[in-house]
Amino acid sequence: MQISINGRPRELDVDVDTPLLWALRDDLGLTGTKFGCGIAQCGACTVLIDGNPVRSCVTPVSALEGRDVVTIEAVSGPEAEAVQKAWVGLDVPQCGYCQSGQIMSAIGLLKIEPKPDDQAINDAMAGNICRCATYPKIRAAIHAAAKTLEG
Amino acid sequence: MNLHIPQLTAGPITSRRNVLKGFGGLLLATYVPMQGFAQEAGAQKPAALTPNAFVRIGRDDTVTILSKHIEFGQGPWTGLATLVAEELDADWSQIRVEHAPGDAKLYANLAMGAQLTGGSTAIANSYEQMRRTGAAARAMLVAAAADAWKVPAGEIRVSKGVISHASGKSSGFGAFAEAAARMPIPQDVKLKDPSTFTLIGTDLPKPDSFAKSHGQAQFTIDLRDPDMVVALVARPDKFGARATSFDDSAARAVKGYLRSAIVPQGVVVFAKATYPAMKARAALKIEWDESKAHALGTQAIVADYRELAKKPGKVAEARGTPLDKISAGGARVVEHEFVFPYLAHAPMETLDAVVKFDGKTAACHFGSQGPTIDQAAIATTLGIAPENVSIDVALAGGSFGRRATAGGDFAAEAAACAKAFGENVPVKLLWTREDDLRGGFYRPLYVHRMRGTVEQDGSISAWHHTIVGQSIMGGTPFEKMMVKDGIDTTSVEGASDMPYRVSDFQCDLHSPTLGVPVLWWRSVGHTHTGFAVEAFLDMLLEKAGKDPIEGRLALLDPKAREVGVLQAVAKLAQWRGRKAGDRGYGVAVHKSFDTYVAQIAEVMRGDDGAPKVTHVWCAVDCGVAVNPNIIRAQMEGGIGFGLGHALFASLDLDDSGKVVQTNFDTYRALRIGDMPKVHVVILPSGEKPTGVGEPGVPPIGPAVANAWRALTGEAVAQLPFVRGGTA
Ligand code: FES
Ligand code: FES
């Protein structure tokens, strides 16, 4: 089957029930998207589908006909730039393993809410676990990115 | 798109050769004698002069530091590189960092005598070694420049990566790297006076932040190879059960499935990719022999432990006659019991490893926390010599202690899988989250029984502390070093040596053995001893009518470093007592790994009736602060880790001995909305630096317990505070 990944149509030779996560990682070599739980609890596998953050570990490739998938490897635009710059500038990552997912969720948030308050951040980021508890820096980086976007 | 793993293609000492080849400049081998408790601990004494290869300087001016400590979040890459760069007078922008390969002769932890990251020792054991490395490299570059410029070495200056002379000559490092490599390695270098440091003590940016923020950091799970096979192991429901036979007829229908085999850990399933391996594993039918399996539930274990706790155990520390004083009457006796559950580490990246075995040598690539232990475990499993096992260390998505076991159990499992596959291809063993949470090696379950007396004048006259729980070190290769006269020091650390001056004192221990595998977990014994001591002391002080801060200070030796952090945290939080309106305030102070941390928690009752922690103030004394930004981050991370488990986490066994919580839906993790605002102050100090990866953890639980008691009058007896389910 064919799906659109990072703006390109990609041919996939996998069973249709294969979660997008494993198609990305094993078949397309896009390993920036991580596995943490497999049951939509941790957010490590978050990608953007039609601009919205989605857990790729529970999204079968069969559901992606005509949809547009963007991963951490190719995410772009003003929100992505602002978020990633803030992440590096504040040295948010510790082990770093959850951070692709955190960043995708943060980008998704800023796209719909350019100036989120703490509660909006809590709600939007509630699905992303960081076992290293980098949460204070994640919060600070989202606020910093929002400020950049303000111009 | 396939990323090859060149290290997987060659023989045993590839890693070392990869380090040495392919660059044109200076690879520095300095000579650093072993020191510290390695000898005391009876570790094998190496030759007096052992070469260490920690830095290479390229023609292009880059300075690459080989980190002997694995980076899984606590910042050793940044810390070790800072130490080298400081004495080398390098510019931070020219610094790169890589993991050193597994090689204990070159890369031993000087506090342990083996290549192992743990015990918050990375900076402490490297502080002089890495600075000497930088200073020696600098001296060799200077010697090479002096030679070329025909000026005395003493007239040459080095600053921010530039070598210069008053005559106007100047150069980067790269131009002299090759000449410097031919200079003699100085045996004795002078290190800087700390007052002249320019990099140590500053918030240098972390070299790994960019890759980790762009999905480019390579973890073990990301390693790929066209020939790679994915392995998943079907495991028994109960610890100690073994597979006797399996039927894979249904699994054979899964596209990409290759085959299965029995290994000591269960039945390994091989497939061409991860998802087919998962599907095939689910389709296997397996017969298990449970005759030797652990079959006791949490409830029964707790009941047994409570019974044991009624009687004193083996005495770890005693002075005076506390038991007599407690039974004599007269003074007011306070008694309390704490129950701490089993806890899983649940690092964000589950355990994984790639092993390629050609029948004679094994090339391995994974986030090995203890390469020396893992090399031995892999060698034993494969029946080859440890020299024939190479380990390339990968970045790892967290550990909290989980990636090191005393016996290298996971490495042995990965080797067993590669051997079972039997072909010379890379085999990637992956654990799912269910494997991780059901896989044992937990922080042990403990019961603490505390009794103490408060005299009429408010003084605390007797203290009796009984601890019940499995020994982490017993029955492991570390037993000889860590278990003294039947007392596992990691079961009582932080309790038997608690800093408060109580005249009549006893701390004793019961160490029952059970079939549940246990392991050190971020801050080891301090995870429960710190809680018990600080929460119980707070109850005694309350009974005595004392302020929690003043009361603690009065019981401490005025010279104790706990005093400094207590005073600093009280000032930072503007401490005004235990309660204000709908907020309770609690304090705790604890030393672990020679670092002193005091925390104050502000707690209110949440909408669900459970504690809601809004602010935490934290003071830390870790000697010289190498990178304050990382220290603050480790305090925040330690607080989040400790808080999440104290509030929400429990790993329970049902009545048949099966694990109840198997993923994050039931093993509840702290989420961003649960994270308090954290305020950190680092005490200025000229003492040698000590670790920060673990010491932030112990005080938070008791600080919250004390705040909750101040607010509600309820003393927590069983952790976690909140039971069951996702947020
Ligand atoms: S891996 Fe998808 S949410 Fe955890
Ligand atoms: S940075 Fe380690 S899990 Fe988030």
* CATH hierarchy class name of the largest domain in chain A: Mainly Alpha
Report how far apart the termini of chain B are.
39 Å
Shape assignment of chain A: globular
- CATH C-level class of the largest domain in chain B is Alpha Beta
Oligomer: heterodimer
Overview of the molecule:
The complex is a heterodimer of chains A (151) and B (727). Chain A is α+β, with helices and mostly antiparallel strands. Chain A has 5 helices and 5 strands. Chain A has a 5-stranded mixed beta sheet, with helices on one face. Chain A is globular. Chain B is of the alpha+beta class and 727 residues long. Chain B has 3 domains: 16-211, 2-Layer Sandwich (Aldehyde Oxidoreductase, domain 4), CATH 3.30.365.10; 220-290 and 351-430, 2-Layer Sandwich (Aldehyde Oxidoreductase, domain 4); 298-343 and 441-712, Aldehyde Oxidoreductase, domain 4 (2-Layer Sandwich). Helices cover 29% and strands 23% of the residues of chain B. In chain B, α5 packs across α6 (174-181), α11 packs parallel to α12 and α16 runs parallel beside α20 (700-712). The radius of gyration of chain B is 27 Å and the shape is globular. Classes of the chains: A alpha+beta (151), B alpha+beta (727). Chains A and B meet through α1, α2, α3, α4 and α5 of A and α7, α8 and α19 of B. One FE2/S2 (inorganic) cluster (FES) binds at residues 35-38, 40-45, 55, 57 of chain A.
